[in-house]
């Protein structure tokens, strides 16, 4: 993460975010990987997310979809 800076009274800060696309039988899912330091680590975190996602019980009709995908923020 880059140091924060001030701009017109706003504090702004940039950070690298790897964007991983994963497709399953239901369509396209977009996964933002925030804590990865390399592309390889981003792919490993995405694989862990897939494992975790597949272990969840199936969604019901009342579950709301996430139009922008899920965000991964794993601290390991």
Provide key terms for this protein.
76 residues; 5 strands; 3-stranded mixed β-sheet
List the helices and strands and how they pair.
Blueprint: E1 5-7, E2 10-12, E3 18-24, E4 27-33, H1 39-54, E5 70-72
Parallel strand pairs: 4-5
Antiparallel strand pairs: 1-2, 3-4
Please provide a written account of the structure.
21% of the residues lie in helices and 30% in strands. It has one helix and five strands; from the N terminus they run E-E-E-E-H-E. A hairpin with a 2-residue loop joins strand 1 and strand 2 (10-12). A three-stranded mixed β-sheet has the order 3-4-5, with helices on one face. The two termini are 16 Å apart. By secondary structure, it is α+β, with helices and mostly antiparallel strands.
Question: Termini separation (Å)?
Answer: 16 Å
Order of strands in the sheet with most strands:
3-4-5
Element-level helix/strand string: EEEEHE
Structural class: alpha+beta
Low-confidence stretches: none
Strand content bin? 25-35%
Q: Give the C-alpha Rg.
A: 16 Å
Number of helices: 1
Coarse shape? elongated
DSSP helix fraction: 10-25%
Average pLDDT taken over every residue? 77
Largest sheet: 3 strands, mixed
Q: What's the β-strand tally?
A: 5
């Amino acid at each position: 993460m880059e140091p924060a800076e001030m701009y017109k009274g706003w504090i702004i800060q940039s950070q690298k975010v790897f964007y991983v696309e994963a497709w399953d039988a239901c369509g396209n899912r977009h996964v933002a990987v925030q804590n990865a330091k390399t592309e390889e680590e981003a792919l490993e975190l995405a694989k862990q997310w897939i494992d975790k996602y597949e272990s969840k019980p199936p969604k019901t009709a009342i579950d709301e979809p996430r139009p922008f995908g899920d965000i991964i923020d794993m601290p390991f």
